[in-house]
Amino acid sequence: MRNLFEKDAFTKLALKAQRGDTSAAEKLYEELFDKVFGFCMNRTSNRATSEDLTQDIFLKLVDRIETFDNQRGSFLVWFWQLARNTITDYYRKSKEINFSEIEEEKIEKISPIIDQGNLDNKIEFARVQSFIGSLSKEEKELFELHFVADLKYEDISKMLNKPSGTLRVSVSRLKQKIRNNLA
Fold first, then answer.
1. What is the pLDDT of residue 2?
2. Which terminus, N or C, of the chain has the lesser number of Cβ atoms within 10 Å?
């Protein structure tokens, strides 16, 4: 959606959804679904759990859309905070294993992108998984918000209460780390 709309388009859709416009709610779902699912997969490493969490996040969106106040900030910041809180609540309740702690033999079960018959894909996925597991908690969160959720620096800054300049430097370092480890 970033190419078609700016973040204000999401806010406009959210305001329409608040007024009962179901097509606006459907458009939010369509545009955010893949990113939310990827965000959940990155956090849980379990397809079924990620599907459930993605569904929970969108149900909460529908239930809580009236609490969104565009005077206080953009919809995307509000929405991704809702997504983060949903996943945090899930882990508090379940004490499930974190992505970086997943066992190697479970790799085949957790990725919707792996061709089960292609050994090269499995090896590459394991390499990426290992790299993500080596990141600090802060780096993982920044990776998820910037690369998976595709949020802008200003939005991440509001969510994490960190200056956007600091985040730019951190993302630059993270990109270099990715290049060094995965290139």
1. 45
2. C
